[in-house]
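Exercise 7. Given the components listed, write out the predicted structure of the assembled complex. Treat all entries as one system.
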Amino acid sequence: MSLQSVAIVGAAETTKLGHIPELSVLGLHTDAALNTLADAGLTAGNIDGVATAGESPVAVAHQLGIHPTWVDGTSVGGCSFMLHVRHAVAAIQAGQCTTVLITHGESGKSRIGAGWRGRAASSLAGQFEAPFGPTGAPTLFTLPMLRYMKDFALSHEQLAMVSVVQREWAAMNPRASHRDPITVDDVLSSRMIAYPFRMLMCCLVTDGGGALILTSGERAHDLGPRPVYVLGSGESAEAPMISQMQDLTTSRAFRTSGRQAFQQAGIGHADVDHLMIYDAFAHLPIYGLEDLGFCERGEAGSFIWERNTAPGGRLPTNTNGGGLSYMHSGMYGMYALQESVRQLRGSAPAQVKDAAISLCHGVGGMFAAAGTVLLTNERP
Amino acid sequence: MPRSLPEPTPETQHFWDGTVVGELRLQRCDDCGSAYFPPRPFCPDCLSRSVQVFSASGRASLHSYVINQRAAPDSGFEAPYSIAVVELEEGPRMLTNIVRCPQTPEALLLDMPLEVHFEKISDAIALPLFRPAGASP
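Answer.
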């Protein structure tokens, strides 16, 4: 017996993106939730499942007056929302709930109502990372790249090209934080943050949020005009400290998560029209293209350099401008999912013509976890 | 204010007791022979609880790194400084800083040989840093 299909029937971001000092973290969650309920034409009374990360799903449910029969607080970093989608599909198929609200909100820039981000000195990271002076993700997430660059002869120019291409996409998006064109030289002359990474190779730090509503394909058909169906999904985890990755030049979590998504969907790479790869830093699309199987090992730098992922290229990637140019609140996965949904609804600012299948891939922590979702606008 | 200091747990105490007396203590499985880090009271490869602490050679190679250009205020660091992953001779990798060496891409060459350099922070804590092999202690 084949399982029933599940679709995204509501998708929206917070009313504003970027600098939102008037809302707390919880306020960003609920602003996104209200916009998403309106998008789906539903009310809180229709929602019986709630999932979120970075905030308690209990708090979100209570704020909105939702009385859930299913709660998911999976919190493994910025890809948590991909995992929530995957878990929601399974829960709806199992009859544990009918309609799931997934929310994200983060006051990354303004830090309104945001908690302390440190780690205990007795944690593994507190003992074996913090004493050596990392100052956040720009000094840890970036650590594998010199190894990759030596092993695969990837140039600084090729790394910079990732940022250039994504700015081209952002230029078409009125909501993107940074829209002015940049060149490889601009990237390579921007301020050094943590060699080999310069300012324009690092993501933005902004405020914002987003939410999704999923329900059974059957209900979706009655509900909205533009349901987006979940074709397949995957998830995985590797190591809580980046120094403990099996191989610094490839993410085991990416490979496992991507493989599961393709297997479940029963499609091949050539079927994918549109790709989102969580880009906290410029090397992430390079790892993603290879570990998800779109490029052979060591070839993603050339693939991007030759404009395959750029506007007009054969594999449009990070078409909202990505974490590098669109927005990045801290857990960017929700915005990648929003862009996949917009592309499949035909409502993206930089619309990919006739996009029917989108792959949306997220990273959690620093190569610590991964989640992959394959979506389509064609009813299964 | 000094660096952020580790707070040992029962599972990691032997490691931090070792660095204070100038030993880089790893663990090895009695059953499968695997040497591993970070510390835990069982083998990550075969899950055997029969494991021993041993003193590693302190020899390593530079596996990857970044050069941080901005130290956190009052962190005890002066930029620029390297944050590196080194591969120990025995196999495991660990995060550290490369010291006794210019903090430049020209001086920090991947795969260069290194040796451990214990930096005493307090009576209870010494950190395992690494320096180029043969550099003055």
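Discussion: DSSP finds 14 helices and eleven strands in chain A. The first strand of chain A starts at residue 6 and ends at 13.
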